[in-house]
Amino acid sequence: MCLAIPMKIKSIDGGFAEVESSSLIRKVNVQMLAKAVPGDYVLVHAGFAIEIVDPQRAKETLKIISET
Predict the structure, then answer these.
(1) Which of 21, 22, 44, 47 is 20 to 30 A from residue 64's alpha carbon, by CA?
(2) What are phi and psi of 62, to 5 degrees?
(3) Residue 31: how many other CB atoms lie within 10 Å
(4) HSE-up of residue 40 (Cα within 13 Å, Cβ side)
(5) Number of domains in the chain
(6) Which element (helix H / strand E) includes 65?
(7) What are φ and ψ of residue 12, in 5° steps?
């Protein structure tokens, strides 16, 4: 089973973005998401941003994750 985590894009430099979830900050590849911009929430799996997601849905998912 695979799990993708919603993370918020803080900045983009070329094909990579700095993303954040809670206090965790990572650098991920965003080359599959040409329309991604800082402030977007993206699903991150194995170092790649694979989908832009609705901010409200991302926050709800993060809340559920934090409760477990």
Answers:
(1) 47
(2) -65, -35
(3) 13
(4) 19
(5) 1
(6) helix 55-67
(7) -130, 135
Q: Per the structure block, which two tokens stand in for 37?
A: 């911009």
- What pTM, to 2 d.p., does this model score? 0.91
Domain encompassing residue 44: 5-67
Residue range 4-51, pLDDT digits in tens: 999 999 999 999 999 999 889 999 999 999 999 999 999 999 999 999
Q: Which tokens in the block code for residue 53?
A: 């997601």
CB 62 within 8 A of CB 22: yes
CATH of the domain at 56: 2.30.30.140
Q: Across residues 53-68, what is the average pLDDT?
A: 92
CB 6 within 8 A of CB 51: no
